[in-house]
Amino acid sequence: MKEKNATQKIVIAALLAALTCITTMVIEIPSPLKGYLNLGDCLVLFTGWMISPLYGFLAAGLGSALADLFSGYVMYAPVTFVIKGVMAVVAFYGYKLLHKKIGTLSSKIITGIAAEAVMILGYFVFEGFLYGFVPAVVNIPANGMQGTVGLVLGCILTQMLEKTNLLQF
User: Which of 21, 64, 87, 100 is found 20 to 30 A from 42 (Cα to Cα)?
Assistant: First the structure.
C-alpha cells in the first residue's frame, strides 16, 4: 500500500472529523448531569483504528468537540477534545499491538473497551470536579451504554468497509 502524502492525510482527517461531528449530533439523548449520549463513539473508534495517532487524535477530538459547541454543550468541548482524542490514540496503539497476535475483531473489541474506559473515567473525573464525585456516578452507566453502542457500531462499520477495499489509508 502506497503511503499517503500530508495533504491526503489532512483531508482524510478533516473528513473523519466532520463525520464524527455529524454522527455525534444525529442523536443526542440528554444525560442526568447536563451532558448527552450519542453515536459519535463509533466514529471515534473507527478513526483510531484507521489512521495515524496524531491525525486520529485531531479528527476524533475536533469532531467531537465541535459537536459539543454546535449543540450548546460549550463547557464540555475542551474536555471532550482531549478525551475523544485520547480514545483514538488508545484504539490505534492497542490495535497495532494486538491485531497480529489475536486477530482483527478481537483486538478491536479489546482496544475499544479500553478506549471507552478512558471516556467513562475522563467524564467521571471532569463531572466529579464540576458537580461532585458522588453525583457524577450517575452518568457512569449512561456513558457505559454509549460506549457499548459505539463499540458495536464501530466494529460493524470497520468490518463492512474493510471488505470493500475503500480503506486505503
Answer: 100
Look at residues 44, 32, 136 and name the one whose alpha carbon lies nearest to residue 86: 44
One-letter amino acid of 158: T
82: phi then psi, degrees, rounded to nearest 5: -70, -50
User: At a CB cut-off of 8 Å and minimum separation 6, what does 5 contact?
Assistant: none
> What pLDDT is recorded for position 27?
87
Query: Other CB atoms closer than 10 Å to residue 160's CB: what's the count?
Result: 10
Nearest residue to 95 (alpha-carbon basis) of 109, 81, 83: 109
What whole-number distance in Å separates Cα of residue 108 and Cα of residue 11? 24
**pTM given for the model:** 0.92
Which cell is 36 given? 448527552
pLDDT tens for 108-134 read 999 999 999 999 999 999 999 999 999
- Residue recorded with cell 452518568: 139
